[in-house]
Design brief:
With about 300 residues, the chain is of the alpha/beta class. It has one domain: Aldolase class I (TIM Barrel, Alpha-Beta Barrel). It is built from 14 helices and ten strands. It has an eight-stranded parallel barrel with strand order 1-2-3-4-5-8-9-10, surrounded by eight helices. Strands 6-7 form a two-stranded antiparallel sheet. Strand 6 and strand 7 form a beta hairpin. Helix 2 packs across helix 3, helix 3 packs parallel to helix 5 and helix 6 packs parallel to helix 7. The chain is globular, with a radius of gyration of 19 Å. The two termini are about 25 Å apart.
Length: about 300
């Protein structure tokens, strides 16, 4: 069974980009066309919004499936709509898998023992989309409860060819309050990074990249580079590019010389590109799909110029 990183890197090399498109639908920002269509079909507010989120996300997938290796649906935006939203999320994930995309569920799950196993069983489909109720290739997880939090997820990742991304150094400004706390000379995020790397050494020995990745924000470029060296066999998921202020130059340190080792996420800057000042006059609300395509091509070109090309 091919491992998660093998499958991801195959698509990265085929498309020659590590651009990752986040799927973050927000009702107040949706194109009028999507809102009108969803509203016309009736139902409760939650059902209407869920229908709109599904249609919008699937439209984004149609645009980017041939351009980028992966998409990252943000579970929270769907979950806020209850059962209708989670059904929409399921449909979006299935649609992305059928389009050939790697799907990273951004759910930030984390617990211990049987509860962690239940989360893993729910989300980690891995190589086979039918292996879990939600067909994610990979899942973001939170290790705050300790190393034993990770083991049930790792077991599922090994058996299903799935991937994990552990929160290590997040992109938000307040991250330092907890993550910079030091013990025995190492900061907390460095300790988590060492645990992540040790799991890859143990369960994916000899592989260029293991199945346990790390989330490291583009807003910490020096630490991103340092963590790349500290976790040489760990795939990185890098949020914070674009709307949060991170640049392609900031994320260059996430990559190995061959251009592998990381995926760089952009969500709002692509999802709602038709609202960006630099693209609004060119495309406008009616050409929102064209704006998404233009923003995706722009990101790909930016990464190729300032980071190693796979």
């Amino acid at each position: 069974m091919p491992g998660y990183s093998d499958r991801l890197n195959l698509r990265i090399k085929r498309l020659r980009t590590s651009a990752l498109v986040g799927l973050d639908p927000r009702w107040d920002w949706l194109p009028d066309e999507i809102v009108r269509s969803a509203t016309a079909s009736g139902g409760t507010t939650f059902e209407i919004q869920a229908r709109a989120f599904e249609a919008f996300s699937c439209s984004i997938i149609d645009v980017v499936a041939s351009l980028v290796p992966a998409v990252k649906p943000q579970v929270a935006f769907f979950e806020q709509l209850g059962p209708a939203g989670m059904t929409a999320l399921l449909n979006v994930m299935k649609y992305a898998r059928k389009a050939g995309l790697i799907v990273i569920a951004d759910a930030k799950r984390g617990d211990i023992g049987s509860t962690a196993s239940a989360y893993a069983d729910a989300w980690l489909a891995g190589e086979s989309p039918d292996a879990a109720p939600y067909p994610a290739d990979a899942l973001t997880i939170n290790a705050y409860l300790g190393k034993d939090t990770l083991q049930p997820f790792v077991d599922a990742a090994v058996s299903r060819g799935a991937g994990l991304y552990v929160l290590v150094r997040t992109s938000n400004p307040g991250a330092a309050v907890f993550q910079d706390r030091a013990s025995d000379g190492d900061k907390l995020f460095e300790t988590v990074a060492d645990v992540v790397q040790s799991l890859n050494n143990e369960f994916w020995p000899g592989d260029s990249y293991g199945g346990v990745g790390a989330v490291v924000g583009a807003t910490w470029p020096q630490e991103l580079s340092d963590l790349r060296s500290r976790m040489p066999n760990t795939p990185l998921l890098v949020p914070g590019y674009g709307s949060q202020g991170g640049t392609a130059a900031d994320v260059a340190g996430a990559f190995a010389e061959n251009g592998l080792g990381a995926v760089i996420n952009s969500s709002r800057g692509i999802n709602f590109a038709f609202r960006r000042d630099d693209l609004a006059s060119q495309f406008g609300p009616e050409k929102w799909r064209d704006a998404i395509a233009a923003a995706t091509h722009e990101m790909i070109a930016d990464l190729r110029e300032h980071t190693p090309t796979p």
